[in-house]
Amino acid sequence: QLTVDGVPVLIHDDTVDRTTDGTGLVAELALDELRALDAGAWYSPEFAGVQVPLLDEFLDALANSRKKALIELKGYWAPEGIRTVMDAVYLRGVQNRVIFGSFNLTTISHLARTAPAIPRVVIKRDLPTDPVALVRHYDAIAILTTPTSLENDPQVVERMHAAGLGVLLYTLNSEERWSEALAYGVDGIVTDKPSKLDGWIAKTAPGT
User: Fold this and answer.
1) Is the separation of the CB atoms in 16 and 60 below 8 Å?
2) Which range has the worst mean pLDDT, 13-17, 50-54, 154-158?
3) Which among 172, 190, 177 has a CA at the least distance from the CA of 101?
């Protein structure tokens, strides 16, 4: 998300109320106001004093790793804000290890025009009637959706794969859910428990 003075930061909610000791919309706070908040104490006392991270800080960590990143742009993003993110990505040379995603279809359109070289993922809580057509319309590579959507349309993964497109699921935090995703044949998942998922994959991967 962008602060009111145009700095990209990493925070889940539209407001700071739940995950900091402050109140108000992220988009109405300046960076210095946001960084003055405690974003760690709500989670655990050992993280008291942790600040809302900057996108720049995350990209620095990404640049010093071999990881890839799916970066969600929350809500509506104008081309100017996207260019700010693009500048930060290219400055660190991680453009080949980044994918952008958004629920907002106008933002996806702006990404396609402003950052055409970076792959895009359309995020939809509920699958549209024709997800292949939707993803192709926005020149994206995959759709990120919920397990419930697949339960209502179990053949969607096969149709998407036949079209050369991917299916990702969010947010799966249990071994039961991970097993279901594996059975569906999806291309990836979003989880709040990456370390536990890594361990589960190590145990369940073929040949282990």
Assistant:
1) no
2) 154-158
3) 190
Cα–Cα distances in angstroms (integers) from residue 194 to residues 61, 89, 116, 132, 143, in the given order: 17, 23, 29, 29, 20
Closest CA to 10 of 20, 23, 1, 19: 1
Q: What is the pLDDT of residue 207?
A: 57
The token pair at 146 is: 């919920």
* Farthest-apart Cα atoms in the chain, separation: 52
The predicted pLDDT at position 154 comes to 85
Pair 39, 19: CB distance under 8 Å: yes
- To the question of pTM greater than 0.85 for the whole model, the response is yes
Identify the pLDDT of residue 2. Answer: 98
Q: For residues 147 and 181, is the Cβ–Cβ distance under 8 A?
A: yes
CA–CA–CA angle 189, 71, 68 (5° rounding): 70
| Rounded CA separation 159/132 (Å) | 8
